[in-house]
Amino acid sequence: MTDSPHATPGAAAPALEPSQITGLLLAGGRGARMGGADKGLLEVRGRPLAEHVLQRLRPQVGALLVSANRNPVEYARLGATVLADDDPTAFAGPLAGIAAGLRACATPWLLSVPCDAPFLPADLARRLAAAALAQAQPAAVAHAAGRRQPVFALLRRELLPDLLDFLRGGEHKVETWLARVGFAEAAFDDPACFDNINLPRQLDALRTRAAARSETSPMPPPSPARPEPMLSVAQARELLLQLPVPDLDVRMVPLHEALHRVLARDLMAPFDVPAHDNAAMDGYALRSAELHATGDTTLRIAGCGLAGHAFTGDLPAGAAVRIMTGAVLPADCDTVVPQELCRTGDTDVVIPAGVVRAGANVRRRGEDLAAGRPALAGGRLLRAADLGLAASLGVGELAVRRRLRVAFLSSGDELRSIGQSLDPGSIYDSNRHTLRAMLVRLGCEPVDLGLVPDDPARIEAALLRGCEQADVVISSGGMGLGDADHLGRTLARLGDVAFRDVAMRPGRPLACGVLRCGTAHTVLVGLPGNPVAVMVTFYVLVRDLLLRLMGTQADALPRWPVLAAQPLRKRPGRTEFQRARLQRLADGRWQAVSTGNQGSGVLHSMSQADGFVVLQHERADVAAGEIVEFLPFDALA
């Protein structure tokens, strides 16, 4: 546990979006001190106690779960997904409910609260998140009036394996487990916020307080919601990389079909490479011990060795072998002298003193690859050179993972396919063609779901079709907040959306999450509709996600320092990606020249660009001649 200072209200601290947090109502206890009653369903002012708690919790989180071992139908009526402990007959306490919540959680964080605490702080999630992030801990708990409140806890989803291991050991105490994994604390000034209802007299007192209030006033009154900041690009990338990975089966394919596939397991070298000591240059093979330290050394030419035609005779003392690059090094020879350093006659070669060191210009057996060692590591995205290496080892087919199937669609009544006539106000859809090209280049199997009009039923049908056919669904358009932007709302209804907005330009309205169809689930990414925003968000965020889902790891993209050719407008608080082309200056340095209008619908400027000028989150306006980062398109395969 970290004994660093408590997080304090009003202090500047990192934040999480509500969409990054799933709320968990703990309602799975016996209620022994309440005579066995299910406390969460006891009524206060005509509503279940759990409903009052959910009223406070709902604005703070993106999704709601209830851990309940009894009365699941009644809890489901409160608008949350109901879970039971793995062994509900055991009533193993809050940790069992938390384990069920972490298992079902589709967001990076889980916030647990008890079902009998109707006064929980309206900013509980925000302040726990600030403490966890500021203190770099995987959990945070509330602290008030000198006491920890361990069931008011914010927990990272990755804690589930450790929690299950803890429970299997017969342990059930919340604080013991939290001390084991480490946690931060967030201080709250009002301990009454954490009052809960454990005894009949406490319930009676609560009902008396409620009756004294106006019937039209909610109990307790919710605090005004505070607008949460948008996710940064880095935070959005972290969330994307936590989405579930599909199980892609393994198959053998011939080399000519393996390009841009992910190698499923290590390819072991069947023999040493090179298989023999051989010459690295054209010249003369000899024993270095026979070279004179001073003066010339004259050796008789005993024969010739060529690649594929080794010298096989005995090499007498005082002799050398004429040898070509790649030829097997004759027995007893350890050095090759390049031919341009020698003087030759009809039968002799003369080597001046000091022109070569012992062992020079020889490639040793196994120096590239040793037999039985990995030639290519599993998880590698195969390139042309990798296929050549496999062929050099005599390997004609490779074990690769099935290509990641990515379904994609464009939504909007204004869109038309190529070949259709354009009505007034309509445009040709470019996004599906762009997405297909980017997916193919990355090594995915594209599944085109076509154009979908702005109709909730048609959108839902297309998404469910994608869920059935693909591992990932990518949509473009309909992610705004307008009356016709149905796609975002449909996503929220069909699955769990981790976030909806990112502080970037272009590309702000962007969603990701998990789309559910029956018992199956599919990763879903909702991109903006503007063509440039589609390409930027794909390259900056979606590319790394897809590579991870394919079974490989995305390497950090190269970013070059270049000069800004002209002033660039930039507002702090978002990351911007401005299209530019490279231009070499007379002094050899490179500068980035803007391609002009940076509007997210100006696709021509993308076609003319060599890459993006990346202006980081906190950067302001850029003056001409300042150093900026440049991300080249050629690095984005």
Write the layout of secondary structure elements.
Elements: E1 21-26, E2 43-44, E3 47-48, H1 49-57, E4 63-67, H2 72-76, E5 81-83, H3 94-104, E6 109-114, H4 124-134, E7 139-144, E8 147-156, H5 160-168, H6 174-181, E9 184-188, H7 200-211, H8 233-240, E10 250-254, E11 267-268, E12 278-279, E13 283-286, E14 297-305, E15 319-323, E16 335-338, E17 343-344, E18 348-351, E19 362-363, E20 374-376, H9 384-392, E21 397-401, E22 405-411, E23 415-416, E24 427-428, H10 431-442, E25 445-452, H11 456-469, E26 472-476, H12 486-494, E27 495-501, E28 504-505, E29 509-517, E30 520-527, H13 531-550, E31 560-564, E32 575-584, E33 590-594, H14 603-608, E34 611-615, E35 627-632
Helix pairs in contact: 3-5, 8-13, 10-13, 11-12
Fold and architecture overview:
With 637 residues, this protein is α/β, with parallel strands linked by helices. It folds into five domains: 212 residues, Spore Coat Polysaccharide Biosynthesis Protein SpsA, Chain A; 53 residues, Molybdopterin biosynthesis moea protein, domain 2 (Alpha-Beta Complex); 86 residues, Molybdopterin biosynthesis moea protein, domain 3 (Molybdopterin biosynthesis moeA protein, domain 3, Beta Complex), CATH 2.170.190; 146 residues, Molybdenum Cofactor Biosythetic Enzyme, Chain A (3-Layer(aba) Sandwich); 76 residues, Beta Barrel (Beta-clip). Helices cover 22% and strands 27% of the residues. The protein contains 14 helices and 35 strands. A seven-stranded mixed β-sheet has the order 5-4-1-6-8-7-9, sandwiched between helices. Strands 16-13-15-14-18-17 form a six-stranded mixed β-sheet, with no helix packed on it. A six-stranded mixed β-sheet has the order 25-22-26-30-29-27, sandwiched between helices. Strand 32 and strand 33 form a beta hairpin. Helix 8 crosses helix 13 and helix 10 packs parallel to helix 13.
